[in-house]
Write a sequence for this structure.
């Protein structure tokens, strides 16, 4: 298990770096990073289920400049891995019922840590204002490297801590007999659907004509979903 | 402030015609653009990042790297700057050209200040509220249709990064070609109409994807469970819309999910 925790720390560091510092290719998005986390633990399918649930919530939290938002890059791979490990020893539903809120909680802690990092970057820059004003290329490159390195360490630390807590806990939770477990997925799915639906309206409603596109899409989606559920 | 501020002022420059950007310099700038936010902070924002990205071009100034012109230009380019990270490539290209053309410092600084607002708002609408959610809902649609983990991950990354990388490269090219007249490029149909069409496509995809995703997540439990889950999701979404700005759904979900976990475990104990 120590090896798993270390691997997740490394993966979380790299994916967490993607969120803001480098390269912002969105490999940090939950649908990608939780699936990767699950794949590292041998079950990409359960990782994807966890990633999809977290992705539904992520629509509400867009990474606008200075705003504070959850950091998905270091949290989602741990959540995906926890879901995969839980599913391998017990119930998928209970594994996800633990992994999804745990992923949200870790993402929130990651968002807080990004704010602290930005303050640290500001302090570093303030101390070097004179060198910046002299046009020192070394200072400019040094600040960029220091910021990226600190971000890598921040994300790695969050992922490492989260994995240390989550992996043993999910092994215990997933094997507990829980008569209500069959209700876990409908509950998580309805929460995710509600947040994503609300977020879609918030994002798109101010653009002319989107209401009709949304209603048409919803009619098609509901019809297909109900037909396939039969 | 106009983006072409100072174009006809007393500091009208004696502009130097400059050759094309050498490939090596261009590659160095492109690779640095992906790290433009590495030292993002609440005081300079991405100012240092802009200096970092423009720096390879500044080595072409008279006196070379470390020369007087180089240091003055780098100091100017490392000051406060704010823009969407992808669209900052427009600024990097334009500022590199302005410096190499020998535009007056005051004019470059005015232009730099004026660029911040448009590059931020256009980028936020095009990428964060356009490209990103549209690609995400498109991928959720694939998931809802039964796609495999590999298909979902690859589809999202390819779709999103096709837009992302092209935007960075195009921005650099536009900035370099137009220089201080880059404002005209910001009126390009892709930047003007793109957010509108992405919002329409995104809404359509969201409408189809959310029910299908919810249905697959509860898959195999029958039409009644799917129907009830969809109804609860719709009611929840309506409530969140009603309390728009006052309630964050993901925080509520965190509380509800945690409470359910504890309840599920306690019910057995």
């Amino acid at each position: 298990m120590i090896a798993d925790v270390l691997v997740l720390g490394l993966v979380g560091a790299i994916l967490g770096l993607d969120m803001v510092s480098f390269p912002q290719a969105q490999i940090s998005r939950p649908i990608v990073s939780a699936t990767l986390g699950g794949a590292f633990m041998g079950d990409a399918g359960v990782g994807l289920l966890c990633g999809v649930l977290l992705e539904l919530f992520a629509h509400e939290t867009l990474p606008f400049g200075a705003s504070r938002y959850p950091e998905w890059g270091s949290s989602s791979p741990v959540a995906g891995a926890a879901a995969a490990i839980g599913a391998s020893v017990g119930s998928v539903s209970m594994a996800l019922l633990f992994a999804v809120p745990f992923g949200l909680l870790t993402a929130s802690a990651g968002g807080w840590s990004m704010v602290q990092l930005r303050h640290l970057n500001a302090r570093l820059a303030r101390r070097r204002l004179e060198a910046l004003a002299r046009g020192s290329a070394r200072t400019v490159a040094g600040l960029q490297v220091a910021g990226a390195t600190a971000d890598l360490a921040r994300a790695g630390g969050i992922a490492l801590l989260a994995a240390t807590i989550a992996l043993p806990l999910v092994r215990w939770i997933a094997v507990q007999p829980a008569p209500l477990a069959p209700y876990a997925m409908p509950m998580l799915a309805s929460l995710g659907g509600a947040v994503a639906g609300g977020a879609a309206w918030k994002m798109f409603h101010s653009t002319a004509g989107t209401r009709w596109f949304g209603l048409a899409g919803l009619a098609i989606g509901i019809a297909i979903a109900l037909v396939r559920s039969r | 402030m106009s983006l072409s501020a100072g174009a006809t002022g007393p500091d009208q420059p004696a502009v130097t015609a400059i050759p094309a950007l050498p490939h090596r310099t261009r590659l160095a700038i492109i690779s640095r653009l992906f790290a433009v936010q590495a030292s993002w902070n609440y005081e300079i924002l991405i100012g240092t990042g802009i200096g970092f990205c423009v720096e390879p071009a500044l080595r072409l100034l008279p006196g070379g790297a470390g020369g007087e012109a180089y240091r003055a230009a780098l100091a100017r380019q490392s000051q406060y700057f704010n823009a969407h990270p992808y669209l900052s490539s427009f600024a990097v290209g334009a500022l590199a050209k302005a410096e190499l053309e020998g535009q007056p410092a005051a004019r470059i600084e005015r232009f730099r200040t004026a660029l911040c607002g448009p590059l931020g708002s256009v980028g936020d609408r095009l990428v964060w509220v356009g490209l990103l959610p549209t690609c995400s809902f498109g991928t959720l649609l694939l998931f809802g249709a039964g796609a495999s983990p590999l298909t979902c991950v690859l589809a999202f990354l390819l779709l999103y990064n096709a837009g992302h990388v092209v935007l960075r490269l195009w921005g650099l090219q536009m900035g370099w070609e137009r220089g201080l007249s880059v404002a005209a490029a910001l009126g390009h149909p892709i930047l003007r109409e793109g957010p509108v069409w992405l919002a329409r496509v995104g809404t359509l995809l969201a409408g189809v994807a959310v029910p299908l995703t919810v249905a697959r997540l509860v898959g195999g439990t029958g039409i009644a469970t799917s129907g009830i889950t969809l109804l609860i999701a719709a009611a929840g979404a309506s409530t969140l819309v009603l309390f728009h700005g006052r309630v964050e759904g993901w925080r509520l979900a965190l509380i509800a999910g945690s409470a359910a976990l504890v309840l599920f475990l306690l019910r057995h104990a």
